Amino acid sequence: MKSAAVVNFAPEKNAVEIREVPRPVIGEEDVLLEVANVGVCGSDLHQWTADHSWPVNYPVVLGHEFGGYIVEKGSRVKGWKEGDRVVSETAASIDPDNPMSRRGLYNLDPTRKGFGYGVDGAMTRFVRVPARCLHRVPDHLDFEVACLTEPCCVAFSAVAENTHIRPGDRVVVLGPGTIGILCAAIARLCGGEVAIVGLEKDSHRLDIARQYGCDVIIGDATEWSRQRDGLGADCIIDAAGVSATLKIALQLVRPNGHITKVGWGPQPLGFSLDPLVQKNVTLQGSFSHNWPIWERVIALLASGQLDAKPIIGGVWPVTEWHEAFDKMHKGEVVKSVLKPV
Ligand SMILES: [Zn+2]
Predict the structure, then answer these.
(1) pTM of the predicted model, to two decimals?
(2) Which of 26, 65, 91, 271 is the most exposed place for a label (fewest CB within 10 A)?
């Protein structure tokens, strides 16, 4: 039995098409998941437009933001049964003996391979998942929302783990994509006064961000950053998909402030980092997430403290991936969600 899958087949631009793929064979520590929904990530778009900076194992089924039902399990899988509603972490392959894995930071194991670039992802009907990646989804949490646990975990990791926001901190988020908006939402939960910054063309996405209780700025955030005492914002979360926004972050941050960079782009920087030194600023990268973050984010989604629904711009069958990708690429929607056919 074969199913339609969104396959990225070569390193060139636009090398994505629908192919019929066989049902995966699972190992003894895996489950087979029947995908309910899968989110389109900025990184799926980057692979489609071939401006990504990570190695891809072509051809590969795209998609790493997903949830579904267990339909089959390997002989050594314990604690799960067929029919369980689950979401899956993204670290499809790790070295359990890597020192980072041994301390629970397997997301930072350099040999880690993720769904959608290292191994086949979830933009299809069935996906093979190691049981250690699974998390239970409460019955009342729809899969259209639950499939977005992954980007919520990226935001939680950047804001609640890698940035130390205290109530009342002024926080500027650069970039109104999925990660930027979710970072703004988490920064609000942490007690920050939050502004999210975008360009004129981002006005639709900024309107959605407004629903999360943050201020919205088109263009220059200098005045907002300096509003309290003239010195700048306490924290900058850089969630834009280019490197150059770091220059803006360095301008907006206050002395002894903090910048967390979670958005990435392969272009080199073309400016001096002297303001980083002169202002005694901490610059922190943020990548991926691990087990305790997933459990916490599912709890936030289940309780309604974090609502991912407003960012969903539509649900398309995988065979209509092109429209779903294109709308997100053009910024007409914040997040596209797919379902298998
Ligand atoms: Zn993602």
Answers:
(1) 0.96
(2) 271
Neighbouring residues of 256: CB distance < 8 A, sequence distance ≥ 6:
279, 280, 281
- Whole-number Å distance between alpha carbons of 124 and 190: 36
Q: Ligand 1 centre and the CA of 210: distance in Å?
A: 22
Say whether pLDDT at 53 is over 90: no
Phi-psi category of 180—alpha, beta or left, where left has phi over 0 and alpha has psi -120 to 50? alpha
- The chain-wide mean pLDDT, for the chain, equals 96
197 C-alpha to center of ligand 1: Å?
21
Measure 38 CA to ligand 1 centroid, in angstroms.
Answer: 10
Q: In which element (H, E) is residue 157 found?
A: none
Over residues 104-125, the pLDDT tens digits come to 999 999 999 999 999 999 999 9
Q: 311: CA distance to ligand 1 center in Å?
A: 14
The answer to whether residues 62 and 12 touch, using CB atoms and an 8 Å cutoff, is no
Write out pLDDT tens, residues 63-96: 999 999 999 999 999 999 999 999 999 999 999 9
Q: Centre a 10 Å sphere on the Cβ of residue 265 and count the other Cβ atoms it contains.
A: 15
pLDDT tens per residue across span 171-197: 999 999 999 999 999 999 999 999 999
The pLDDT of residue 242 is above 90? no
Query: Using CA atoms, how far apart are residues 226 and 329, in angstroms rounded to an integer?
Result: 32
Report the separation in Å between the CA atom of 277 and the middle of ligand 1, taken as the mean of its atom positions. Answer: 32
CA of residue 121 to ligand 1 center, whole Å: 11
Structure-block tokens of residue 44 = 């799926």
Tokens of 184: 């703004």
Q: How far is 64 from 266, CA to CA, in rounded Å?
A: 21
Distances (CA, A) of 205 to 218, 232, 285, 333: 11, 25, 24, 7
CA-atom Rg of the chain in angstroms: 20
Distance CA 166, CA 253 (A): 15
CA of residue 43 to ligand 1 center, whole Å: 6
Instruction: Give yes or no for a contact between 256 and 249, defined as CB atoms under 8 angstroms apart.
Output: no
Output the CA angle 104-24-124, nearest 5 degrees: 90
Torsion over CA: 250, 176, 154, 240 (sign): negative
